[in-house]
Amino acid sequence: MNTLKTLLGSVAFATVASAAFAEDPDLLVFDYSGFEDPAFHTKYVEKNGDVPSFAFFGEEDEALQKLVSGFKADVSHVCAGSVMKWEESGILEPWDTSKITEFAKLDSNLVGKDVAATSAYFIPTDFGSTAIAYNTEEVPAEDVASLDVFKNPKYEGRMTLPDNVDDAYALAYLATGTTDWTNATDEQFEAASAWLREVHPYLRTYWTDPAELAQLMATGEVLISWAWNETYPTLADEGFPVGFQREPKEGSSLWLCGYVNLKDGPGSEEKAYDYLNGFLDASNAAVLMDAGYGISNTEGLATLGQEALEAGGLAPIDAPILAQLPMSVELREKQSEEFEKIKAGF
């Protein structure tokens, strides 16, 4: 996403763990390229004089492998679907939420039950929505009133889904009546998988990054997509007739990412909290939104106003929402394996 909005998309091709912007030697942040932007870290700089040091990764499984192999950093960005796998690997230690100044202001819909204790392994910091982006000149609004539009033969060969297992299964769970994947049953998983398998023949492709998706829609090759919120303002700013349907009857999803506290980090634990607190400060809401991300601090998000939230595809909606909260390692691996089979036509 501009970095995180490209979640497992365009940043997946970045060089793994290439260090840069080595400033404050007392804190090393392992992150997606782009999050070193000094505009995101003004509060940290005010307190500590420099931005932290950064090392970069492109894809979370690669990042985990590097950490398990002995690479040392103090904190890392990670998206919710990977958290339990990282926790089970033994590389994390919990945050002390009493030291997180904005903790009480975090959106409860993004925090989830497991982050409500006095210590937590994952603190959500940034989020975005995933919904139906569509060409308003060729697709009537009533056609995108249901997620079953992805099975509509009228649009065969002119639709696309993200090449991202979390986003794809979020769509499929919603389409089959599940709005909480944290406790998905085998039956719900099978129903979601069957839905994706039914949709597969109608797709033109699986898009890998927002730039590719924007091009597919701008050229008219694709009329309908399951898309991150970045696509909506990007195409609208270019004068493209784009709609962003976040309220089909089955609902839409929210992806979220945050920071984890790495065990035995070489730097300052105090500065790790300075970093997290600075990132979550309400004053960060506008600069994060400019990059396409919502901030998990509800007070900060409220400062942006309804118009800005609507333009960014992040306004409150009156429809079910599947928050892409941490899931079990077993379920995520099952989904990953099944998604690869579905994409291959099996």
TrEMBL record:
What domain of life is recorded for the organism? Bacteria
Q: Name one Pfam family in it.
A: SBP_bac_8
- A Gene Ontology molecular function term of the record: polyamine binding
Keyword Ribonucleoprotein on entry = no
Q: What is this protein called?
A: Polyamine ABC transporter substrate-binding protein
> Gene3D superfamilies of this UniProt entry?
Periplasmic binding protein-like II
> SUPFAM superfamilies recorded for this chain?
Periplasmic binding protein-like II
Major localization listed first in the record, in broad terms? periplasm
Q: Which residues form the signal peptide?
A: 1-22
Provide the transmembrane region boundaries: none
**What keywords does the record list, in alphabetical order?**
Periplasm, Signal, Transport
Nucleotide-binding: is it a keyword of this entry?
no
The record's subcellular locations are: Periplasm
Q: Which residues form a coiled coil?
A: none
Q: Give the GO biological process terms.
A: polyamine transport
GO cellular component, as recorded? periplasmic space
